[in-house]
Amino acid sequence: MDEILIIGGGGHARACIDVIEAEGRFKVAGLILKGSKEKETQLEYPILGFDDDLPDLRKNYSHILICIGQIAKWVPRVTAYDHCRQAGFTIPVIISPLAYVSPKAKVGQGTIIMHHAIVNSGSEIGENCILNSRCLVEHDVVVGSHCHVSTGAIVNGHAVVGAKTFLGSGSVTENEAEVLEQSVVPALTLVRRSPSRVRQK
């Protein structure tokens, strides 16, 4: 079983590790944290290094996953993703065995699809996305790179979600709606068909 490094040490990282372990393709080797000082984490895995150590870590490890949470601030995930690519890591797609992803959907590298999420036929998911627990991405949806579709969110058919966007828990995006790039859609919001940017960061 190949080993994988985890960037992040918080609650989202814990949830991602649970999905990685359930999928069973990778063994978690340890954590990479931001900065260069000794830090503590509640996770049981060792801290193997910090951001600046990525080039050296690449000598011993091939796979890595960005496990930094994303709400309003997308920059940390995007920056980490770019650094990992520059260092030459493979950033795999991780799919929970409890999720359903249509074989006719496309999913970009570095995306994690968490427990009980659904991605239906014809949908295209970008790179480095979080499709969180129990979210629903219906048929023929486009989700741009570096997005977080949060717990229980529903994205209905033919909708387009711009890159670097956060869809809050329980939000509903209407059929054929467009959410513009870098939007932050609060929990339980209804996004209608006219272009919507609820709050941009």
Lay out the secondary structure.
Elements: E1 2-7, H1 11-23, E2 26-33, E3 47-50, H2 54-57, E4 63-66, H3 75-87, E5 94-95, E6 100-101, E7 106-107, E8 112-113, E9 118-119, E10 124-125, E11 130-131, E12 136-137, E13 142-143, E14 148-149, E15 154-155, E16 160-161, E17 166-167, E18 172-173, E19 178-179, E20 184-185, E21 190-191
Parallel strand pairs: 1-2, 1-4, 2-3, 5-8, 6-9, 7-10, 8-11, 9-12, 10-13, 11-14, 12-15, 13-16, 14-17, 15-18, 16-19, 17-20, 18-21
Describe the structure.
The chain is α/β, with parallel strands linked by helices and 201 residues long. It folds into two domains: 2-87, Rossmann fold; 94-201, UDP N-Acetylglucosamine Acyltransferase, domain 1, CATH 2.160.10. Helix content is 15%, strand content 28%. It is built from three helices and 21 strands. It has helices at 11-23, 54-57, 75-87, and strands spanning 2-7, 26-33, 47-50, 63-66, 94-95, 100-101, 106-107, 112-113, 118-119, 124-125, 130-131, 136-137, 142-143, 148-149, 154-155, 160-161, 166-167, 172-173, 178-179, 184-185, 190-191. The strands form four sheets. The chain has a six-stranded parallel beta sheet, with helices on one face. α1 (11-23) links the parallel β1 (2-7) and β2 (26-33). The longest helix has 13 residues, at 11-23.
Descriptive terms for the model:
disordered C terminus, alpha/beta, 3 helices, 201 residues, globular, 28% strand, 6-stranded parallel β-sheet, 2 domains, UDP N-Acetylglucosamine Acyltransferase, domain 1, Rossmann fold
Named at the architecture level, the CATH assignment of the largest domain is: 3 Solenoid
SS-based structural class? alpha/beta
* Rg on CA atoms, Å: 16 Å
Strand fraction band? 25-35%
SSE ordering: EHEEHEHEEEEEEEEEEEEEEEEE
Helix content: 10-25%
Question: What is the CATH first-level class name of the largest domain?
Answer: Mainly Beta
Stretches with pLDDT under 50, minimum 5 residues: 197-201
**Domain module tally:** 2
Task: Please report the number of helical segments.
Answer: 3
Total E-strand runs? 21
